[in-house]
Amino acid sequence: MYEEIFEMINKGDINKAQEQIEKISDDDPKKYNLNGLIHFNKKELEKAKEQFEKGLKINPVDSDLLFNYGYLLKEMNQEMEAWRYLMRIHDKDWATYDLLGDIEFKNRSELASLRFYLKAAELTDTPQMKKKFLEIKNKIKKDTKIAFLCLPGLDNFLKDIVETFSLGYDVKLVVSTDGNEITQAIKWADIVWLEWANDLAVFATNKVPEIENKKVICRLNGSEIFSKLPEKINWENVNQLIFVSEPMKELFYHVHFFLDLQSCKEEIVYSGVDLDKFKFSIHKPGYNLAVLAHINYRKNPAAWIQIIGKLKNLDNKYKLHVGGDFQDPLYKEYFEYIKKEMKMEDNFILYGLINEVEKFLEDKNYIISASIHEGHPYNILESMARGIKPIILNYSGSKEQWPNELIYNTIDEAVEKITEENYDSESYRRFIEDKYSLEQQVYEIEEILNTDNRERIKGQAILLNAKEKDNNPDVINTNVSEIYLRKKVKTMIVHIFNSISHTYSEPFFDFIEKNFPKNNHCFIVLGNYEKQRFKRRKNLVILNSQNEAENLRTLLFKMKRAEKIFIHSLFFSELVLLLFLNSHLLKKSYWVLWGGDLYYYKFRNKNLKFDSYELTRERLIKDFGHIVALVPGDYYLAKKWYKTRAQYHYAFYPNPIDYRYLDKIKNSKKKIDRIVIQVGNSADPTNKHIEILNKLSRFKEKNIEIITPLSYGNQQWAKKVTEAGKKLYREKYKPLLEFLPPVEYGKALNSVDIAIFNHDRKQAIGNILALLYLGKKVFIKNDITTWDFFKKKGLNVFDTYGLDSLTFDELIYMDENLKERNREIIAKEFSEEKCVELWKNIFELPTSEI
Fold first, then answer.
1. At the topology level of CATH, where does 2-91 sit?
2. Does the model's pTM come out above 0.90?
3. Per-residue pLDDT for 475 more than 50?
4. Sequence-separated (6 or more) residues with CB below 8 Å from residue 505
5. Segments making up each domain of the chain, as ranges
């Protein structure tokens, strides 16, 4: 019957299909699957979603429902939710794996996506799928050799990682105690991964000289903490130390408090479980308990006996199934003795080491963890992925790792949690999906592999030569691929600029480093700036590689890991596309308006190409979480033009010209009769210089001097303006064609009497504020957002549109009281202290409000 209904739906016989569907029992999940398909075909996505969800409540692992619901969520741009449900399908076909690969590739880890594409290619004879896998693999493949080194018997946590990385890198897994074999692997590799901080790590970092020229990562899994081995490792030869949990890191430094690890970065990467291997199913309260462990004192095995003993007294049907090898044979003796003493031969069952964990867990209702110390235990991860309720002893760090309602302190509490009715398989699985998937682990590890805090690895950085150091220790050429920030990822605020300018970008970098913890901020600059020189900063990343895909991949890594993203102007088309394809990043993104990036809506070229790009921007801007702007009117234009739902934050950039310096030079202007008039602030045609030059030409016989700052912008326009100025005013016209440092530019502004700006939008704010502070008369148009903003602040500016009606005396006159009033307002409202306060409020905005 189901196949017939499917055929009706495919043919478009919806009414007949609905008649047949009504005959299906309300308890049958396929009824809701079919209803959902009908709504989906009608493009009634919310109704389809409701039907699929009803079906999944009846059978959460129905493959058809899971696939259709996942596909629907993908169509609704909820791709990671789609990933969740597609992963729950037990017997996936190649199309499901292909879909999972697409989602993973786009949203998280390109490398991990290869796992799915490979499975898809293996499950079908379709040449296109095999071609797709190979093309993506070749695209992702890096010319980097990684040697994973581990002692025998300790590679269980490493297998999935090695398998995945072998798809995108040249990989060797060496599980050995042979020093020569380990040495040869280190010599071969570009990157060396030391699994466990144990004897092998001691040997590799002390006895193999070649390791000094390698990038070295050491992962500390837990038990090594209580040995002396970490103190024997040469940490100078380790780039990054990975802990499997934050509590593990704290414990490490508590035990080895005198170790100096300043030479290597510390990272937290939680373990990840292969959710494809551990299939989700609904489990319920029952009588089968399980333990999976290497049996030693840390696992607290005596507590297992106490728990099953109490449960047996409540009901003899309770059984504890123990899977694991005896690292301490004394426990085996004890178990054999005590289960006879307590008459629990049928309730306490020993299996030895379990090779097929998935099968072992199939019929279990609970997993017991009585460990007094853990790193990030796989037995809990794998059981929760399966939908099994864990009962976890409150070890140090457990409350930060697991839902607190699953944690117990006493044997009685453990028994209570086992016998209570509260049991939610879906929530256990969801918890692992959200926090501890293998794909998330791979993504975090790959980011570590793709960054480095040392300059000794080829391609990572070019050191200053001795001559450059002697000449200027603060400057470095931009042929550096990246300068990586030593950071704690979770608190990182990323600032993205599409240029380095001495006008705003560099002063802003200085401002942040002066007033905020610089290790919390990372500056990323997009574009090719090989000829430009910039101040060297540890937290500055220049994406100037010729490989654009590599640039964008690095940028995406940074953005995904950032707590907040500040986009300082939205001019870079590749960034627009990247954000559009990763819309989940928009909620934590702050668009810092510069002006032209907003008014692109109004002044762009009107053709198919630019209209298409603007449509992409429109969808993007609508979903931004935040907008930062000096002028509220610009924010309201963004709301009007783009229907944005972003939250508004008032802030401004620090003025490139320090007000304290302006105080020093304010009264230094020479007492001469000539009136100096500034027209515009740059070589941007939006200044409309020539229009103003023509308007002022009726005063050209007066004792005046016209200056036009033209050092940056459109140089063809600068040439045109210069020609017009010289023609009209001859020697009275002075174009400023060379870039002036802030101090020199401040002097130029101080020489001005009147400044006229003819922009049709907010521009030249830094110039205007400096001029008003110096007591100059400033003209701007009365129909731009800046006009209303200044008037509400109480600042006195004059209307550019009124120039034609002014006599020369009216043009040059300004009441001294108004000048002083302007100065006072700017000193109060635009001081560095005020600037710090505003940005501090934004940076400290709680994540929950983002």
1. 1.25.40
2. no
3. no
4. 497, 499, 525, 568
5. 2-91, 142-268, 288-436, 466-650, 659-829
